[in-house]
Structures are given as C-alpha cells and as structure tokens.
Amino acid sequence: MKSVILYYSVHHGNTKKLVEGIAQEYDIQLVDILETKSLDLSAYDLIGFASGIYAFNLPVEILKFAQENLPESKRVFCLYTCAMLKSGYTKKLVEIVKNKNCEYVGEFGCNGYNTFGPFKIVGGTSKGHPDEVDIRNAIEFYTSVKK
Length: 147
What we know:
With about 150 residues, the chain is of the alpha/beta class. The protein has helices at about 15-25, 60-70, 90-100, 130-145, and strands spanning about 5-10, 30, 45-50, 75-80, 105-110. The protein has a 5-stranded parallel sheet with strand order 2-1-3-4-5, with helices on both faces.
C-alpha cells in the first residue's frame, strides 16, 4: 500500500514530530505543504493530512490543499496536535473527504506544546508534547488504518 502524509507544522514542530515518527517505522512519503502547493495524489492508496489546530480548526492551508488536490475514491485519515483535546476539529476536512467520494478512516489527536496568545506569558501549555508515548500512539493509529 502506497501512503503519503501531507503536513503543516509551523510553530513548535509538534505535528512534524508525529509524522516523522510514523515515517521512521513505515515506508511513507511525507510532504510539507508549505513547500508543495499541489501534488498528484492519484498513485496513493492512503492519504493523511496532519497539522496543529488553530482557533479550534485545521488551518486553511490543509483544507485548501485537500480541496484542490485530493482525488476521488481514496482512503483518508487525519493527525493533529492541539492545546486541548476535544471533538470537532476535523469537521471541515471530513466534509471535503466525503464530497470527494473518499473514505474517512479515522483520526488521531494528541496534545502539543502551545504558546499561542496568553499561554506564552505563562511559558506555554503541554510542554514536552508530543512525547514518546504520543508518537508511539500515532504509529499505532497509522498501523490500524493502513490495513
């Protein structure tokens, strides 16, 4: 199975840590969407989107990339890091996936070091995350969806 993870990781590299952990275990292509604005994804069986969460949503860059580049009838998953774990962060991505007649096979989220806004004053939240346990859990999640 040919897999790719398209990621957006700009502040502390939280999301990049997760995708690099997966890539150390599996033969998977990683694509930084800050460096690649479009990509033919038709050759991939499994497509992942990964990012931090900003203002309770995936960033516009991830959503735009998915809208413009995701082909129909693919298996798709999402990875994210966030300040506070809760549901609903991927709602807009799931809508895009469904509109492309793709199968959304799941998502994995974990805390990530956060210094946005007032959290910077107190030194941030979730220091040290994602940690080795978070990375191992992300790898286990990928293992479960690649089947």
